[in-house]
Every structure is written in structure tokens, then in C-alpha cells.
Design brief:
single chain; 246 residues; alpha/beta; Rossmann fold; seven-stranded parallel sheet; 9 helices; 48% helix; globular
Length: 246
């Protein structure tokens, strides 16, 4: 595979870290954003100790201005962004009748508006170069819904709507746009859920276990080679069989 410049938003999280590692192992030059300097530097030290290099740039993906500056910083250091993984996301879970406008807006801004904010500064360069790979990290709950997650499910469903529209607009420019929809993954966030609740979740998964971040990173990597050039507008469900829509 040709070495490319890859930007992974939310790369210091569990799934994001696995994606960064896989892209680095494939020979790509990887960058990710951060908001917490101390946490980001600790993450980078661990990455380097394991032989994985990455470029850190400050940036709040929920802000259009900050996201554009973040992209320009990456380009100034590494070159034009050729692979974009829109992975950043948060939760503010509560039933809708108790949900505040702030809880709604924070999730929509970080999980969905960020996809516009980060993709907009890179798409014209991809079109000019006639090559690009864009992957959204959505969720099983964007496909089937989830109690207490109207904001999260709406944002994650919207990500794939963005994917299929952008895929149509850019297919003739050598740009593919796809979605990966993970099920329940054994990240710190999921492992913090009380064990009885986790056991109920696992009981609904045909494979009988949580997924791993590396399995999601593998799904992302599937869309990136030149050999995947004819796959665009797709949604790859990686959920252990928990949701089998088609």
C-alpha cells in the first residue's frame, strides 16, 4: 500500500487508538486531534513505547473554525490529508423526556456536525488529486436505536446519510466514502458499565462476547487500499451478529 497522510479524529480513545496503530503499521503517516494536552502527551508516550508514531494537533472538532485550523496544521506538518477517519464521539445519555437542549446539542455537534467540520477542509484537495478515503465510525445504535440515546442514535444515523450522499458526489473523483458501525466494544467506556448490565448486553450478542478495538480497526482498514476503490457508500456492520440489517 502507498504511504498516505491519515487524520483520525478522536484518535486517543479506545477505538481511535487501535485505528491509529493499524494505519501506522500499514505505513501511513498518522495524525489525530486532542483537547487535553496532558492526556494526549501521555497517550503519545505509550504509542511510541510500542513502536507506533503519530502526530498530535490541538483541535475541537465540534467547532468549524477549530476543525479547519486543525486540518491545516496537519497538512503543514505531514502534507495533504488523503485518508480521513471521522471517529470522534461522545455520549450524554438520558431518556428524551428528560434530555436538555445542551445534552442534545453537545452530542449532535461532536458526533455529527464534526463530520462536516473536518471533511469540508479536505474534500476539495481530494477532488483535485483524484484520490481519497473517508470513513465514518457510526454505531449499531444508529441502525437500531437505543433506549436513552435519542441524541446519539440520531447523530450516528446521520453519519451514514452523510456517507451515502458524499459517496455519490465524489465517486468520479477517485474518492470513496464509507461507514463502519461497531456494536458493543470492550473499551474503557463500555467496561465502566456495571457488570450486570454488561452481562445483559453480551447475552444479546450471538458471538457471546464484546468486540475489540482491533476488530473495528480492521474493518476500517478494509476500505483504504486501492483494491477497495469500487466500494463506496457502504455501511460495514461489525457487531458480532447483534443486528443483522441489510
Amino acid at each position: 500500500m502507498t504511504s498516505r497522510v491519515a487524520l483520525v479524529t478522536g484518535g486517543t480513545g479506545g477505538i481511535g487508538t487501535a485505528i491509529c496503530r493499524r494505519l501506522h503499521a500499514a505505513g501511513h503517516r498518522v495524525a489525530t486531534n486532542y483537547r487535553d494536552e496532558a492526556r494526549a502527551q501521555a497517550w503519545l508516550r505509550k504509542m511510541r513505547e510500542s513502536g507506533c508514531e503519530a502526530t498530535l494537533v490541538p483541535g475541537d472538532v465540534s467547532s468549524p473554525e477549530d476543525a479547519e485550523r486543525m486540518v491545516r496544521d496537519v497538512e503543514a506538518e505531514l502534507g495533504p490529508v488523503e485518508i480521513l477517519i471521522n471517529n470522534a464521539g461522545i455520549t450524554r445519555d438520558t431518556t428524551f423526556h428528560k434530555m436538555t437542549a445542551q445534552q442534545w446539542q453537545e452530542v449532535i455537534n461532536t458526533n455529527l456536525n464534526s463530520v462536516f467540520n473536518v471533511t469540508r477542509p479536505v474534500i476539495e484537495g481530494m477532488r483535485e488529486r483524484k484520490w481519497g478515503r473517508i470513513v465514518q465510525i457510526s454505531s449499531i445504535n444508529g441502525q437500531k436505536g437505543q433506549y436513552g440515546q435519542a441524541n446519539y442514535a440520531a447523530a450516528k444515523a446521520g453519519m451514514h446519510g452523510f456517507t451515502i450522499s458524499l459517496a455519490q458526489e465524489n465517486a468520479r473523483f477517485g474518492i470513496t466514502v464509507n461507514t463502519v458501525s461497531p456494536g458493543y466494544i470492550g473499551t474503557d467506556m463500555v467496561m465502566a458499565v456495571p457488570e450486570p448490565v454488561r452481562e445483559k448486553i453480551v447475552a444479546q450478542i450471538p458471538t457471546g462476547r464484546l468486540g475489540t478495538p482491533d476488530e473495528i480497526a480492521y474493518a476500517v482498514a478494509f476500505f483504504l487500499p486501492d483494491e477497495a476503490a469500487w466500494i463506496t457508500g457502504a455501511n460495514l456492520s461489525a457487531n458480532g451478529g447483534q443486528y443483522m440489517g441489510w
